[in-house]
Amino acid sequence: MTSCHEEGGAAVAVAGMPQIALVGSPNSGKTCVFNHLTGLRAKTGNYPGVTVGRTVGVTKVDGVEIAVEDLPGTYSLDPISPDEQVVADLLAGNVADVGRPDAIVMVADATTLHRSIVLLAQVLRLDIPCLLALSMTDELTARGGGISVDALSTALGIPVVPVVANRGVGIDTLRAQLASFDRWQRPPVLPPADNDAIDAWGRSVLNAADYVAPQPDRRTRGIDAIVLHPLWGTAIFFAVMFCFFQVVFTVAAPLQERVGRALGWLGGLVSDHVGNYIVRGLLGQGVIGGVGTVLQFIPQIVLLFLLIALLENVGYMARAAFLMDRVMAATGLEGRAFVAMLSSFACAIPGIMATRTLPSSRDRIATIITAPLMTCSARLPVFTLLVGLLVSPQTRWGGLSAQGVAMFALYLCGGTSALIAASLFKSTILRSDLLPFTMELPPYRFPSARNVLITMWDSAKVFLRKAGTIILGTSLVLWVLLNLPARQAETARMSPTQATSFVMDHSYAADVGKAIGPVFKPLGFDWRINVALLGSTSAREVFVSTLGQVSAATDPDDPHEALLTMTDDDGHQVFTTPTVIALMAYFVFALQCMSTVAVMRRETNSWRWPAFAWCYMFVLAWTAAFAARSIAFGVGA
Amino acid sequence: MLAQLAPGQRATILGVAAAASSVVAARLRQLGFRPASDVEVIRRAPLGDPTIYRVQDTELCLRRREARLIEVDPGSGT
Question: Which superfamily, per CATH, for A2-215?
Fold first, then answer.
């Protein structure tokens, strides 16, 4: 529901304003121009009915608000990919709920004009007022090229504004021009339509403008000689990836701890000062607990988004994709999917959002529905607990710490299963469309701080709005399920931990846990494990604390001891080795995380794929857990 | 064809093989692999595929599968 509202919001917010569309090929600096024009006032959503992201912003010229639409990058208006189809349809006025734009700003990279002049010819043929924003003009002259902007404007018959988007140069001139789009000069004769004729037209226009193409970028050549070197390049690649995770975990962890402590203090205040049982619980545990879970994710997520945006803007992401393409090709995916898969080792949400760089929508969907199999950081506390129940810290297997080996095996399992699942889907239901793999390697550039920060902020906003509301909502519902009906009379003379455990044993959640008992009975899960599984839908790590509370552990965040001695209703031990192994297998594969489901819904623009992903992962998890348990029984564990 | 050239070599593009699907041919053309354009092989990935080419003042990479479809004349490369 929220997403419908949001998409409607993007349309409603700009209704009545003049609409200007930004058109340009990938890497033309278009999005950078957009970010400088509209700042933080951009709204993102999807075009109706397709997996193509839509970005609309507002810019103000002399008090007049103008809607600016950042169209997906395209090489041509003869569409091949769904993104390009949207651009072609929108410019032709064929997209429902989105009108034909009043004017077009075409952004073209001055260093690659020979290529983009073809797109410009097609855009001019639309006969909509058009202005050419010529980006990277500084780079053109620095690399020994040149162009006469005035002569180009005369030859084309449209206004031309040079911009250096990553430093904001020329943006004010561009913005000032936007207001008077109805008075822009129009070309007296439209360019030709035929391919060869366009080439000839392009050559004559560029000749008239004294265009001299730039020399290859020597700095980029020098850096690439090392960064893409068979030996050094590979070493640098692993070093960059290692630092990527090192930064995410070492910088984010202390911040997360501090957030956790602050919220613990706040929760204490609530429980000390609020009298009513339900209000106290909903506020102290539901709201603060839910917000706490969201906030604890924030440092990690924001850092991930920042690093991805930084590496992307510098130009390294394309290099990483180039190095890894051969590996990813084995799964039927391409190099750019690697970035998404790798990010999912920290959290699937930034990984899923990073799939936007994939031009093929089938590759995008295959990556989105398999990325959650990657071992995300929320599984870590669960695995730590389960591995601890299975083997003691002192146990050695072949000289190695058994806990370390088990942990490594779980990570390996998640990583390989994601790749295998991707290759299965790519060879069956998502067999490749005809798009060939092509990828530009832009010159290394100093990133614009503004551009990086806006990219990061837009992504963080999506996380907060989509994942945040889901986590908070789930956390409130779970509190109600776990703590009601209230049992104040029965628990009056119990210790707080016993009281919590008693309430949970007789809560709605217990009813649910018992009701779904038959599903999980073959896996050896006790109804209290089911309650904890229910808890893990807000975030997987909540499994640990829920289990802690339901088992009446003295420290609910470290329920190790209590779980070892926990018995089911018939007095049998619950956490036997086969059951622990089954739980591990279940957590490797199951898609419990509701915020991941919400982000999948947003990125694929339908419930179909998240529902499919949830189902296949549940079946996979159940089967794997059952098999693992049976094998464990078989070997007599 | 383009896939046979070694890194460092230049050539002039003759066209896209007739065996290529129209989608692939159109995309390659849009990217700058047009008849009469010069192309230079920059480098191969450490694992042998893909390869970076310079065409129309941009560097981009293609897999061998697509590079096989581009017919070139190595003799006339400048």
Answer: P-loop containing nucleotide triphosphate hydrolases (3.40.50.300)
